[in-house]
Structures are given as C-alpha cells and as structure tokens.
User: What shape does this take?
Amino acid sequence: MLLATLAGLAAAVWVFGSIGLDSVLAAAGRMGVDGFLIFCALSVSTFGILGAAWLVAAPGEPMERVGLFAWARAVREAVSDLLPFSQIGGIVVGTRTLTTAGIPASRVYASFVVDMTTEMGAQLVFTLFGLAMMVTLLATGGEAEALRPLILGGSGVMIAAMVLFFFAQRPALGLAGRVAQHFLPGSVVAMTGITDRLRDTYAQRGRVALAFALNLAGWIVSAIGGWVALRMMGAEISIWSALSIESLIFTLRSVAFIVPGAIGVQEAAYVLAAPLFGLPPEMALALSLAKRARDLAIGLPTLIVWQIAEVRSLMLESRKR
Assistant: This one.
C-alpha cells in the first residue's frame, strides 16, 4: 500500500507538472468560493442518498435513523479518502460507527454486504452507460485507443469482483464462522446471525431493488455534481458527456482501491478521458483538484467529530468496566 501511495503521488505530480499547475489553478479559481460551497452541498446530499440505501438494506431499522446511516457513510468515505487505510479502513470505521450507536452487529454487517452488492451492481450499470457513450470514439481509433485497455480492463475487473462478491458471500461467511469458532468458541453464533439476516434481506426483493435504485441515484447525483463544477468553471460540456467521463473515472477509482484516495489514478484518468469529449486537460485536472479540496473540506470536520465520538464511547466503555 505504501508503494502504491508513493507511485500515485509521483503520477499526480507528473500529471500536474506536464499540464501546468498555473493553468489548472486558474481554471479551478473560476469556480469561486460560492461555487465551491455549492459543489460541497451537492456532495453532502449524496451521503443522504447513500445512507438511505444502506438503511433500506437493514430491515428492522426505522426510517428515522437515515441520518445515522448517512453519517456512517460520510465517515466511511472520509477515512477512505483522507487516511492511509484504503477503502478497507473506511468500511471498518463505517460499520463500527453503526455498532457503537447500538445497532446489532449482525444487522450492521449483513446490511453492509447487501448495500455493497447493490452499490457494485449500480456502478456496473452506470459504467455500461459510460461505455455506450464511448462506443463510437473507441471504434474510430486515435486518442480513444489509449483508453481501450483501461476502460475494458477496468470494467472486466469490476464485473468479476461483483460476481465473486455476490456468489461468495454466504460461503465466505460460513468459512469465517468456522475459523472464528476454532479460535473464539461461541463466535459462530454471531456469524450464523449474519447469514440468517442476509437470507432474510435477500428474500425481501423490494428492499434490495430499492437499495439498488438509491445507490444508482447516488452515482448519478455525484456525477452531476462534477458537471455542475465544470460549468461553474466555464467549461462548455454537455451533461451526458460529463456523466460518461465521471462513470469511467469512478470505475478506475474502484479498480485502484488499494491506493488511498486513488491518488494519481484519478488525475491520470481525467487527463486521458477528458479530451475525448472536448474538455481541455487543465479543466479536467481543475475538477480533480476541486474534488480533492472538497474531500478535505467535508472529510476533515467529519474525522474530527468522529474521533471525538470515539473517545467518548471508549470512556463510557471503560466506566462500565
């Protein structure tokens, strides 16, 4: 992970240096403070959608707790984007946020599995849309040829991961339960509880379909936020082109999950994909820079509040002992 992070940083420095940092900063500056705040507000609204998707995947939880699930999702993203733990660390902290709030662990973990499955399925649909938009470009050769292995390879990896994740859920939980029982007698009961909740949740097809629809809406709204940011910078780009670019960026970020915050991957992908849709490279890098600034503006306060809550929780646990 350290090597991947260093390689990503080197790639980001090279990309900004080759395009010209001054031109990138000038493009980003056109957004202004007001525009940046609007961009951040759109991102915060996305957490509400994604939190609702996670809540729907947790039968038995009242709708009044959508704010809690949205907060857990925000913490998960903040940890993944800003701390050197990759997406795995974000998942651990996000699920702990819910269990600390008193939600049964079996319900939290089972709902996470369902939410993750539907999120991956929604991303696949969104990615296929982006590929459909680029079919003509890929067929004409030229600069589009450079993206062919990245896009098709990334989509193939994502499809394989989604299929493996979907079909291996229950066998993997069963194996984890047997291993846990060997080292921690009695823990198999908890694993059985997760498996039972998974079975019950998947039996409620309406909930699974709604979770899928909400996750798809989350991807779309997030991409629309990128289009709004580009328009505020003065870019002349259609919403369909922006959605296509964002779908491809999201795919490559997901494939590069081991790199914290997809450092370097995101920047290089923008430089490769944006010119195909008539977007200047410096404008695409300005959007990437705006996203990094947004992650800091939202993520840092989120991490601070989360850390304060963690300290209070640990203090309460120590007093009970």
Observations:
- The chain has one domain: 2-9+29-316.
- The CA atoms of residues 6 and 249 lie 20 Å apart.
